Amino acid sequence: MADAFVDVLEQIPRGLVYVGMGIVLLVFAKFVQDFITPYKIQVQLRTHDNVALALSITGYYLGIVIVFLGAMYQPFGLIVADSSLGFTEAYWEDVLRVLVYTAIGIVVLNVARMIVDRLVLYKFSTEDEIINDQNVGTGAVEAAVYVSVGLVIAGSISGEGGGPETSLAFLALGLAALILYTLFYEFTSSYDLHDEIEKDNAAVGVALAGNLVAIGIVVFKSVFGEFTTWEEGLAGFLIYAVVGFALLFVVRRITDLVLFPKVSVAHELAVDRNLGVAFIVSAMAISVSLILFFAV
User: Fold this and answer.
1) What are the phi and psi torsion angles at 143 (to 5°)?
2) If we measure between CA atoms, which residue out of 193, 195, 207 comes closest to residue 144?
3) Which one of 1, 4, 167, 200 is CB 3.0 to 4.6 Å from 156, fit for a cystine?
4) Which H or E element spans position 163?
5) DSSP symbols for 49-79
6) In Å, how far are 45, 157, 224, 242 from 57, measured between CA atoms?
7) Is 112 exposed, middle or buried (0-12, 13-18, 19+ CB in 10 A)?
8) pTM higher than 0.85, yes or no?
9) Tens digit of pLDDT for each residue in 130-143?
10) What is the Cα–Cα distance from 179 to 116, expressed in whole angstroms?
């Protein structure tokens, strides 16, 4: 008992270094976003009370923390496993590695979000919808893009094995999976996704956002862990991607038939703009993807 107490006291200071670094990185991320956006974020949030932008920024910070945790996964596991390490040279090398990986990840997250944005909601300008129209549905989708892209980045940089080339390859594959799933989601929906979101239908935007986070978790699972060979890595990625697409499609149908047997979920989202239903279908999709993550 005494030894365990001492171990905890030794681990807390080392963990607090990561907490402090995480705060610094969030501040850095704020400056990066301020630099690349053509509008004044503080004016939008404080003067115009722009909820759509607030949603997007919420997803941005969550995405950054996810990237940070992905970069921290390997060294932090080493630190916790051996409490005798202390503030050694190896410890500070790990801290520096996490700092560099996350800083690069923040830049990649911003670039990837712009690319995915243009390919996910490709029929209109997301910036115009969020800033000028304060479209909450678009803000929810962009928040989900940040989170799902953050999951892809975290999965591609975590674990052992491989190198920069494997991280970049699986990052590209993960982003492609996110885009393809959105096209698949739109193809299997009975309403025009872009038309509904552009008409300020927040319910449709929230439902899509939940599914984007869900497929992001599946993609994270497919690229997460130790890299062995390209054959195993690519085979695992493809299997998880196909299973994820099929599973989330089945979940949507089960949600429609079991949870709402007397109404159509598509009607509730597209016609009635029912936000309550949108939250429920999002929770179902994310829940199933989490079960897949931990069960397989």
Assistant:
1) -60, -45
2) 207
3) 167
4) none
5) --HHHHHHHHHHHHHHHHHHHHHHHHHHHHH
6) 10, 23, 25, 30
7) buried
8) yes
9) 999 999 999 999 99
10) 7
